């Protein structure tokens, strides 16, 4: 398939890794050769970082493709995809690079593979500037599965900044096509639950303090629901390094899910981490939509004001996402 290459300017949108992940996945799905230039041009460390590189190499291996210019610091790559086969593949960032972002680039590809895939993703599971693995499992997974596929995500080891060392195993069977979904009815909040964790040398009290502060913050605004945040000490053999953080989820009567989360940093007290997550959740509930800000931003959209009488007073918008209507040519 030596057709014309698709040329992508890697400095557009937020000029980071996202444009690279999206264009590589689409190149792989559509079988179109790709060149991306000016990769992460505006970032303090421009070019490919370990997490981007390991993601690219996994996509190359998934489809027996060819990849040029793929090294740390490179600002230009070319990728020539072949047929997506599936199988067992490993991507290891060898840093705290996010396993969730590795999943983001590979998931669309393995859904349209010729056979099932097992992806061993290594790096940070709960790291800054990326979804926490708990968000991926508790929010992204159930909503994504509404499109008509199932995936399994087995968290073997958790890894934190700066060492990483986490591993998740993702198992996916391919589909013929995805079904469109309609998420316009928010319903009302029926449950609020979450998980506050400490790992490594951090005392368990930190988890309890994060949870308690988050509960207090939510109670000020939502008084009639029990807020069930579990405090967890990650078992020594299931976590690498030290870390703490919290994720809180609100579930509605129609199955919508919203989250707020935060990670501890050196010198930031536990209450503050808990409150930050609670405030993020409350902000996501206040806007009255059916998804939170992190689930909403993942494709091409048409935004129009809702015509519904009830909504008219509230500045409600219907967001339509135009998919590419992909059918699996490998099945």
TrEMBL record:
Enzymatic class: ligase
UniProt keywords, alphabetically: ATP-binding, Ligase, Nucleotide-binding
Gene Ontology MF terms in the entry: ATP binding; RNA-3'-phosphate cyclase activity
Protein EC: 6.5.1.4
A Pfam family assignment: RTC_insert
Residues of the RNA 3'-terminal phosphate cyclase domain: 13-299
Protein name: RNA 3'-terminal phosphate cyclase
């Amino acid at each position: 398939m030596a057709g014309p290459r698709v040329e992508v300017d890697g400095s557009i949108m937020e000029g980071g890794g996202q444009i690279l992940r999206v264009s590589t996945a689409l190149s792989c799905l559509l079988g179109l050769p790709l060149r991306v230039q000016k990769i992460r041009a505006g970032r303090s460390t421009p070019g490919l970082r370990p997490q981007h590189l390991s993601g690219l190499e996994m996509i190359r291996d998934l489809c027996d493709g060819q990849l040029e210019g793929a090294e740390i610091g490179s600002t230009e790559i070319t990728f020539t995809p072949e047929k997506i086969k599936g199988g067992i593949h490993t991507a290891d960032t060898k840093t705290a690079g996010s396993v969730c972002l590795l999943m983001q680039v590979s998931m669309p590809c393995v859904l349209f593979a010729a056979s099932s895939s097992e992806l061993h993703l290594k790096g940070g599971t709960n790291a800054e500037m990326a979804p926490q693995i708990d968000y991926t499992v508790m929010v992204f997974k159930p909503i994504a599965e509404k499109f008509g596929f199932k995936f399994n995500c087995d968290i073997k080891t958790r890894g934190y900044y700066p060492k990483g060392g986490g591993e998740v195993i993702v198992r996916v069977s391919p589909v013929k096509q995805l079904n469109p979904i309609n998420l316009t009815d928010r319903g009302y909040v029926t449950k609020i639950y979450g998980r506050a964790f400490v790992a490594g040398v951090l005392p368990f009290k930190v988890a309890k303090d994060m949870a308690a502060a988050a509960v207090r913050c939510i109670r000020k605004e939502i008084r009639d629901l029990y807020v069930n945040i579990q405090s967890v000490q990650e078992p020594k053999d299931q976590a690498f390094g030290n870390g703490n953080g919290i994720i809180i989820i609100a579930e509605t009567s129609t199955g919508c899910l919203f989250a707020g989360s935060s990670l501890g940093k050196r010198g930031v007290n536990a209450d503050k981490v808990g409150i930050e997550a609670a405030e993020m959740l409350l902000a996501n509930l206040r806007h009255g939509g059916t998804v939170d800000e992190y689930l909403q931003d993942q494709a091409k959209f048409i935004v129009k004001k809702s015509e519904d009488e009830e909504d008219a007073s509230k500045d409600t918008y219907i967001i339509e996402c135009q998919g590419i209507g992909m059918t699996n040519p490998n099945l």
